[in-house]
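User: Hello, beginner here. Can you help me understand these amino acid letters and fold codes? It all follows right here:
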Amino acid sequence: MNHAVRVYQHGEPDVLIWEPVDTTDPGPGEARVRHSAIGLNFIDIYFRRGLYPPPALPFIPGMEAAGIVEAVGDGVTDVAVGDRVAYATAPLGSYAEVRNCPAETLVPLPSGIDASLAAACLLKGMTAEYLVRRTYPVQAGETILVLAAAGGVGQILCQWAAAIGAKVIGVVGSDAKVEIARAHGCAHTIVTSREDMVARVREITAGAGVPVVYDSVGADSFESSLACLQRRGMLVSYGQSSGKVPPLDVGTLAQHGSLYLTRPTLMDYVPTRPELLASANALFEQILQGHIKVDIANRYPLRDAVRAHADIESRLTTGSTLLLP
């Protein structure tokens, strides 16, 4: 019997309920995928908490997984039975042993990219791709600032930027994460538990500040991130692990030097199948060329999703986390 994790009400990790669910034939345009590995991401926590509203309650969380196509519905031409595939976009529902997906969201996996690697990196890696190549196109020789540099997205983003030729300042929460950040492309590290981020950035950049800050922390770091930017710099606020950023007086951007602020999401950067495949293939190319290494540091049985969520929220994890059916 197929099992899944379902959420009946928003709240703490214990609202994640492991239970049997029905398996149905794929409808028109759908493919049924048996998961080999499921990616856990902070966006899953946002949906569980209700920071991002799901389509309805109850719901099965999760946006990322990899596995094998078991069946296809009418009209499906993008994938075939037996294909190795991964996905990292809506609709929700990856916390399941088997599920039906829109076939157009499935990315074929090239040789050299196995299911665990794909599930560990596709959402995070495509996020890093659009951040460093499209939201703010990082250039060789620039010095940039990346918060949560030892996290799943942070590790990939820092390596990608370093491969372009940028000098990366990585921000971490503890000394234990310094070596992780350095091993993943950071030329400098800042430990927020004992260092002033703004002062250190100004010191590293000889007072100039940085042209871009990639901030996935949100409320706790927003003001400091603005203060690290040079004139006409860009704050890319792409997450809110510490909570939502409070309402902003836009005059603040002028006071800090005519700054730019954006709040991007992956869905707006891969809205079409050609864009989805281009982003995924750019990531796979970086991995296969050896520019990006993915740290799968944490594996939990899918039935232990409660523990996995509690650990990631307590910042006990680094790198990528997998749930295994």
Remarks:
- The CA atoms of residues 223 and 245 lie 9 Å apart.
- The chain is about 30% helix and 25% strand.
